[in-house]
Amino acid sequence: MAQYGLIEAGGTKFVAGIADEEGTIFARHRIPTTTPEETLGATIGWFRQQGLKPEAIGIASFGPLDLNRASPTWGHVTRTPKPHWSGADLTGPFARAFGCRVGLETDVNGAALAEARWGAGKSAGSLLYLTIGTGVGGGFVSEGRLLHGLSHPEMGHIRMPRHPLDLDFAGHCPFHGDCLEGLACGPAIIARWGVSLSELPEGHPGSDIIAWYLAQAAVTFQAIMDPARIVMGGGVTATPGLLDKIRTMAAQSGAGYFVGNPAEVIVAPALGDNSGLLGALAVALGI
Amino acid sequence: MAQYGLIEAGGTKFVAGIADEEGTIFARHRIPTTTPEETLGATIGWFRQQGLKPEAIGIASFGPLDLNRASPTWGHVTRTPKPHWSGADLTGPFARAFGCRVGLETDVNGAALAEARWGAGKSAGSLLYLTIGTGVGGGFVSEGRLLHGLSHPEMGHIRMPRHPLDLDFAGHCPFHGDCLEGLACGPAIIARWGVSLSELPEGHPGSDIIAWYLAQAAVTFQAIMDPARIVMGGGVTATPGLLDKIRTMAAQSGAGYFVGNPAEVIVAPALGDNSGLLGALAVALGI
Prior knowledge:
Chains A, B: Keywords: ATP-binding, Carbohydrate metabolism, Kinase, Magnesium, Metal-binding, Nucleotide-binding, Transferase, Zinc. Helices cover 33% and strands 20% of the residues of chain A.
């Protein structure tokens, strides 16, 4: 059976893995993210040690990335505040070391592909994957194909209405102030109330306010894509009871206008800790 | 050269046409929208009179439509307040009369396909078409393919921030109040100020307020799809000077974060009166 090399490239660690095309992961290995030379070199070293003869290699990576296939710097990190990584070539070293095709996507788009193929969106036709944590990101897959315009989505930066009890907060996004990320990401919650949602005292309006923002975002995504599934992952949405609130509020705001019913559409991720590596696998299979 | 039968199906009139695959329209004919029997019958009659032997027939229609190919009522109008047209079969009569494939899309998706193929988005890769008039609608095309989830987009119903000088208006949408359509469509303008934007006295803030809403919407669409072109058509955006205001305000709100520069991305439609029939042709060619 064909083998695939997988890389989940994160800002603090890389996870390398080996799998078959059905999603069985045979081996995985964690490598700290230091410099491109060290980290990519250690990843190649581990693949070799495992005797990998890959059909293809897939990378699901932190960004920003140049994903324009016509660009001379396709497959590279673009400008990032992360030391050493601006301009780093993520794909070339693997293509040279293993002589195979190498695919690259954002980590969020990778997770969207994986949830659509093996997880919460299996057989559903279309899936929007959102992660709400340190930041907010999203990817949309329809019939196995990722939504792309000039660049990968930056769904955290959609414009938002304001909750009537939250008019004084300027928002946490350095670029846009009160976009979705600026209002609902983990640091925006800490900036307002000093603790995470699950640490707020009972009766505090914080959970309702954040659930309301995520419900408004769900309505906007229904209006634009009407996804069969909206997966909400990340630390913020793991707060107990939050998904149920979001479902109820999205149904109220949508007023039955869209085909998808939020009670069925809005779901938790299904792939857990495997979503990064399976994202890389989906990227490798889709080259 | 192959011939295609085209139908632009509107609430007050149908326009039938005949064209080749390059977009040359040889003949067109206008038919009032009365009952499905009369209007579809007259359309078939005109096609026959013209001696049409179509390779395929494309319909770009008012809605709501059942566009789910797996549904037994694919190609029918669903529930509409328009008398006689709920449940009307738009495609079957043409398939039976001409023994050819018949394609159907919403009028907005048709215009999006046509602008992407022959108009403002030619060679651009991706295009969002918005029409802002009696209502607000939108369609997105990437590499010739329409964005579809569970249903066609209802982009007029995205959630919106509120302009600080427009906090008292409840919004005009019967379902969502202050969604994009509820704030920026023609009737929402009349409801606030009694006249259309171009009839407002000089110095009135109305144009700036509406331009700001359309700029916020453009930013949201850039965050989600980053379209190479955002075409803004319809009566409201035809107001002199409005597109320039929208471009400036979208650039301010986006803060340079997205790949597309609003000054180049936001454009007027290029196909004028032909966009309906060319939309039907794009549908026929895409079956």
